[in-house]
Specification:
Number of domains: 2
Structural class: alpha+beta
Oligomer: single chain
Strand order of the largest sheet: 4-3-2-1-5
Number of strands: 5
Helix content: 40-55%
Distance between the termini: 104 Å
Largest sheet: 5 strands, antiparallel
Number of helices: 6
């Protein structure tokens, strides 16, 4: 069974799910409490200011912990069903999205106007999305392939795709976040995940293992030859002359 690298905050998938869920609930409660009962306006009371600052602190700490734990648990889940490389990519993506949500929530509790920040982030996201459209498409297609599992590593498959040159048979060597590595009759082929997701995949039966060659029967020892008879003594004719 393959062993996956264990991060310092990864003490087991079950523990990460539990701690991440508890931290997420605390972060959500802090966000609700700060939004409903806290305020940093000039007319706000001391208690409202205190609730706003405490809620922001709790939201920051629990949000960071929850994001890290849930990302680690999700990464372990994906890596156990595919490859550690894919799990690492999922962890980076989920961690970035989680931290971004935590930062925006804390800024909202602290009454920081993020309208212009959101506009700038939206424009930057549009530009990056257009520039990296193909790469992002392969990443999301890889996630779909990992979760849906139309094929797995070591499977013998038949691929039907006009973009890939028609119909060919291949063995699946590797499934990563952007490419699928296939072993074909022409050699090793790296296919983008988006192309594999759009192709028709047919599972071929694995070849039956050849039975071990039977050992030849032990040859019987050659029959012992009868001992050579001693030459008979020549009879001498004692004929009188």
């Amino acid at each position: 069974m393959p062993r996956y690298p264990v991060n310092a905050i990864s003490h087991g998938p079950a523990r990460n799910w539990v701690i991440g869920t508890i931290a997420g609930v605390l972060a959500l409660a802090a966000l609700i409490a700060g939004s409903e009962f806290g305020s940093l306006a000039k007319s706000a009371t001391f208690h409202q200011n205190l609730i706003a600052w405490v809620s922001a602190g709790v939201l920051m700490v629990s949000g960071v912990v929850g994001t890290a734990r849930l990302s680690a648990a999700l990464s372990h889940l994906v890596a156990s069903r595919s490859l550690p490389a894919a799990g690492g990519g999922v962890r980076i993506l989920s961690t970035g999205v989680g931290y971004l949500l935590v930062v925006f929530s804390v800024l909202d509790l602290l009454a920081v106007h993020i309208d212009q920040l959101l506009v700038g982030a939206g424009l930057a996201g549009v530009v990056l999305g257009i520039a990296a459209q193909q790469s992002l498409g392969n990443v999301f297609a890889g996630l779909v392939l990992i979760l849906a599992r139309p094929f797995g590593i070591g499977d013998h498959i038949r691929v039907r795709s006009g973009a890939l040159g028609g119909i060919f048979d291949a063995w699946v060597n590797e499934m990563a976040l952007t490419y699928v590595t296939l072993n074909t009759d022409d050699g090793v082929l790296k296919v983008p995940n988006a192309a594999m997701l759009a192709a028709g995949i047919y599972q071929l039966p694995l070849p039956a293992s050849e039975p071990p060659a039977s050992e030849p029967p032990a040859s019987e020892p050659p029959a012992s030859e009868p001992p050579a008879s001693e030459p008979k003594a020549a009879k001498t004719d004692n004929t009188a002359h």
